[in-house]
Amino acid sequence: MAANLLNARDMALHACLCAASRPLSAYDLLDARRAAEPRIAPTAIYRSLTKLEKAGLVQRVATLNAWIARPPKLPAEPSVLAICDSCGAVEQVAEAGVIQAVTDAVTRSGFHPNRPVIEVHGHCTRCESETDPIRSAPR
Amino acid sequence: MAANLLNARDMALHACLCAASRPLSAYDLLDARRAAEPRIAPTAIYRSLTKLEKAGLVQRVATLNAWIARPPKLPAEPSVLAICDSCGAVEQVAEAGVIQAVTDAVTRSGFHPNRPVIEVHGHCTRCESETDPIRSAPR
DNA sequence: CCCGAAGATGTTATAGAGTAACATCAAATG
DNA sequence: CATTTGATGTTACTCTATAACATCTTCGGG
Fold first, then answer.
1. pLDDT tens digits along A42-69
2. Is A90:A83 a contact under the CB 8 Å cutoff?
3. Around Cβ B88, how many Cβ atoms within 10 Å?
4. Which among B95, B115, B139 has the least Cβ separation from residue A105?
5. Cross-chain CB nearest to A137 (options B85, B115, B116)
6. The CATH number of the domain where B80 resides is what?
7. Is residue B135 a part of any domain in this protein?
8. pTM of the model
9. Are strands A112-123 and A80-84 parallel, antiparallel or unpaired?
10. Residue A110 with chain B: CB contacts under 8 Å
């Protein structure tokens, strides 16, 4: 009956995300898995990602329609994401206080918060210093 | 040369969003506009939405792939969104301090913030009190 | 041992969101 | 008038995500 445990495929997807320096889309992962499982379909990828998300091992990046692995050090709650629009890297900022401030703010207006999504686009230290200031900021 | 002004179509889309009690997808807007402009295509909708967003009149809801009108009272900057997963309503919380706290947090880790996206899913006052606590929380 | 329930997984197909590429039109300018 | 430049129209497509249904597996009860 109980089978919400992670299987080999789940672990493989998690490994892909851990190895990547940028968020990967579900279809990036699909392509990656096709080497080992040629007939795997999008549904299977999304089912795995849902499981991994519940386990706190991956987090979806809403503004990129993509996925990242969560560092094992961090607690299982979602974190604040700093997304570099230049190199695509995503830093996970462990700022419980900030998340609390956000949920407090909406609570103050009578809302009952459940799942905060906090993503900040901009440029990482390296990209900010390296290149000229003219940039495009994709959604 | 100058023609970044809003045209009748832009205003019509804005009016649709103002009249709606929930966020509308670009394709909801497309369907709505088809009554007046039967041959209008998705591209036109997105071009209008981009213009309206730059003008501070609409805001995209990243976690819903949908759009809302911004209350004229609020400044043109994006606001914190409180999204009810039960009735679908979105409240725009004007909490400049919270947004500042978020950008400060990522700045502290060396990031150069540019565009914060803060969306909190949960339940509004009415839905929280009205119904039983078993709910689904769509992405 | 067999059967049936219940969840997991496979498979097919399609819905929904967004954009690329190119044609056409319209206004301004010299 | 000819040309340039930006806006808009049009077609077609890519990418993201899920619905719907088939199949398999596991396990408990008869």
1. 999 999 999 999 999 999 999 999 999 9
2. yes
3. 16
4. B95
5. B115
6. 3.30.1490.190
7. no
8. 0.90
9. parallel
10. 124-125
What Rg, from alpha-carbon coordinates, does chain B have?
Answer: 17
pLDDT in tens, B22-70: 999 999 999 999 999 999 999 999 999 999 999 999 999 999 999 999 9
Please report whether residue A3 resides in a domain: no
Indicate yes or no: strand D within 7 A of the C-beta of B54. no
The number of folded domains in chain A is: 1
- The answer to whether B7 CB sits below 7 Å from nucleic acid chain C is no
Q: Which amino acid is at A41?
A: A
Q: Rounded to the nearest 10 degrees, how much is the dihedral formed by the CA atoms of A120, B28, B12, B47?
A: 50
Q: How far apart are CA B70 and CA B63, in angstroms?
A: 17
Distance separating alpha carbons of residues B53 and B55, to the nearest angstrom: 5
Distance in angstroms (rounded) separating the CA atoms of residues B54 and B5: 11
State which residue has its Cα closest to the C1' atom of D16: A65
